[in-house]
Amino acid sequence: MNAEIANNPKQIAYCGLYCAACKRFTNGKCTGCQKNEKAAWCKIRTCNMEHGYASCADCKEFSDPMDCKKFNNPVSKIFALVFKSDRPASLRFIKENGYNAYAAYMTENKLQVIKKKRK
What we know:
Number of domains: 1
Shape: globular
């Protein structure tokens, strides 16, 4: 049985995923993006840490994360397709409403990522 999803802005991943809603996190098998030292391979995480950003929503170089090759790469495209995820929508939500509102929204809706809307 999974633990409840916590409303915790510190569990927002650098790319916009909400770690607090991830099964691995709620089952105690992952510390979440920000504390996960094993995620040193992640270029998004490294870039955000180097710039002191809480997430890509804070990026000063790219107003649209899809213009960033670290964010918009082949792995992320496969992830988006498989999970029907819209990480750019998550980052827009953070930019428009803030980290606390995003964490509250994701917690209330039990979401790890905002889902792509059908066209």
